[in-house]
Amino acid sequence: MNRAHRLARLLRILAAIVAEPGLNPLELAERAGVSDRTLRRDLAQLRDLGYEVEYTSGYEVQEKLNLDGRSKKGRATKSAGDRQELELLQAVAQAVAQVRLGDRGAAPPPAARPRPPSRARTAAAAPLVLIAGGDGDTDFYYATGFGVEAGLYIRFGEGDDLLAVSPLEIDRARDEGRVKSVLGYQDVGYEELGRWVSWPRVAARLLASKGHSAARVGPALRGGHLDELRAAGLAVDVDRDLFVAERRHKSDEEARAIAAAQEAAEAAVTWVVRELARSEIRDGLLWIEGSPLTSERLYAGASLLLGELGFTCPEMIIAGSPECAMPHFRGAGQLRANVPVIIDIFPSSRTTHYHGDLTRTVVVGEVPEQIRRMHAAVLQSLDAGIESIRAGIPARDVHHTVCEVLVDRGYGTTTKGYEGADGGPKMNHSTGHGVGLDVHEAPNVRGPGDDVLQEGDVVTVEPGLYELGLGGVRIEDTGRVTAAGFENFTRISRSLDPRDY
Predict the structure, then answer these.
(1) Pairing of strands 181-183, 160-164
(2) Are 328 and 291 spatial neighbours (Cβ–Cβ below 8 Å)?
(3) DSSP label at 249?
(4) Which tops the pLDDT comparison, 77 or 325?
(5) Exposed/middle/buried for 341, CB within 10 Å: 0-12, 13-18, 19+?
(6) Total domain count for the chain?
(7) What is the DSSP string of 429-448?
(8) 158: domain range?
């Protein structure tokens, strides 16, 4: 029964592809009556059966279909069952191609969900509307070059955009922003109608003045603003891939900004480790200048240093054992000797807003043999992961390379197929992620995702091993993907010994 359901679903997807080539993922999912996640899985199954069904770059996607049942690579099915499924799917797809389900009067695909009249296609050409969500709204900053607590951005078309802000911000917006028109409240007819109502009303009026009744918005738009835009009569489409491709590819200027942030991270980590190196051990605890050496004290000093350099990192991690077995534990209280301390600092520039990301693990005092072995395994997996990186390879291959090294060294992971030994330290997170205006952005370096590394990606490689009650070890470098490999922005020591920094 499950197999029959799967075949029926695959047939609906094939029918939708043949009936209307060039659907984007959201449209195709609606036509076939499946979720976006299910669609991506089913397209992968169709490729496994030998069909050439693939995405091109960007939000507008072309589904390419080879009805011969063979991909460009000449992939063949592996079993009699697969061949039978392929023959059935091929026959139905050919029939669909002949009757053209997309023609007028044809019935919709079975069990397809109702589709809003041409919303997705209209929205592709509709003006872009962004309503600022605070200084941390990186899509708004990317579009305008200006971070602000409250404001409105509209891109009517190429070279035709505006930014509306309060009188308090207008001079700064004109100085820092990269928008054709910067307007004040009085210029756009702003009225104080409440937090969720004011900017949507302004947006609707400005769009109507140019004859627009539809708009695109980003996925970070707050629900209250989205409701009010629609209440104002706009047909609003949420572009879930807004700026993803553009932000993912880092220009040389952006790469330099990230490298500068990484240099600031190195300065902060070095300061923290040197404070650890000059601490004293009393009864298994760390003391400095007669006072307990705490995560909070190190956090304050590192924050001061970053601030002097023009950077900030309010969520940095300086975590001792055994709590650092929880990878995102921030750190609290007096630190212990003879156990790992994980320092993870990911500052953003107050000028460029780009991040770096750096993690090191050190031990003050005697290094337990178990921690030494864990550190050696993590370091080897880091090097293997970095060596595997180049443009054009699936990001999951980097993750699997890291997992394979850890398993070969006798440890485990939570990645399917690389579970390793039962019990003992494990890696329970992805190998890495993209870095930019957000510290975590595309691409993901993990399995089983289908991201392919591209030239210009800036990513982290950060394997780790953790065991509750013991602690953890994590080492992280950040750099840029190139056609030849990995341009590492990180220069700092990876040693467990604080005296090496």
Answers:
(1) parallel
(2) no
(3) S
(4) 325
(5) buried
(6) 3
(7) S-SEEE-SSSSSEEEEE-SS
(8) 120-242
User: How far apart (Å, rounded) are the C-alpha atoms in residues 141 and 130?
Assistant: 10
Query: What's the 3-state SS for 262-305?
Result: HHHHHHHHHHHHHHHHCCEEECCEEEECCEECEHHHHHHHHHHH
| Side-chain half-sphere exposure of 184, counting CA atoms within 13 A | 7
pLDDT of residue 79: 54
**Residue 383 parent element (H or E):** helix 369-388
Residue 30 clears pLDDT 90, i.e. is over it: no
User: Once rounded to an integer, what is the mean pLDDT over residues 154-171?
Assistant: 93
Structure tokens at 62: 């072309």
Other Cβ atoms within 10 Å of 481 Cβ, number: 26
| Bridge partners, residue 317, by sequence | 344
Last residue of one domain, picked from the residues 87, 115, 143: 115
CATH number at 96 reads: 1.10.10
- Return the ∠ at Cα 458 (arms to 452 and 462), rounded to 5°: 90
How far is the C-alpha of 459 from the C-alpha of 432, rounded, in Å? Answer: 7
Contact 65, 20 (CB under 8 A): no
Could you tell me the maximum CA-CA distance found in the chain, to the nearest angstrom?
85
Residues ≥6 apart with Cβ < 8 Å to 215:
123, 126, 127, 128, 129, 203, 207, 229, 234, 235, 236, 237
CATH number of the domain bearing residue 397? 3.90.230.10
Q: Which amino acid is at 291?
A: S
Q: Which of 39-48, 93-102, 115-124, 203-212 has the highest mean pLDDT?
A: 203-212
Domain endpoint, select from 242, 263, 288: 242
Segment among 27-41, 128-142, 223-237, 238-252 with least mean pLDDT: 27-41
Which tens digits make up the pLDDT trace of 356-412? Answer: 999 999 999 999 999 999 999 999 999 999 999 999 999 999 999 999 999 999 999
Radius of gyration over every alpha carbon of the chain, rounded to an integer in angstroms: 27
Whether residues 253 and 179 fall in one domain: no
pLDDT the model gives residue 4: 56
User: For the sheet containing 214-217, what is the strand order?
Assistant: 181-183, 160-164, 152-157, 128-131, 214-217, 235-238
Taking only the tens place, the pLDDT of each residue in 429-461 is 999 999 999 999 999 999 888 889 999 999 999
Lowest mean pLDDT among 50-54, 299-303, 344-348, 398-402: 50-54
Give the C-alpha distances (Å, rounded to integers) separating 2 from 11, 91, 340, 380: 14, 21, 49, 43
Residue 364 tokens, joined: 């003050």
List of residues 6+ apart from 232 with CB closer than 8 A = 200, 201, 203, 204
Mean pLDDT value across the chain: 85
Residue 123's Cβ-side half-sphere holds a number of Cα atoms within 13 Å equal to 24
Among the residues of 20-79, which ranges form H helices?
Answer: 25-32, 36-48
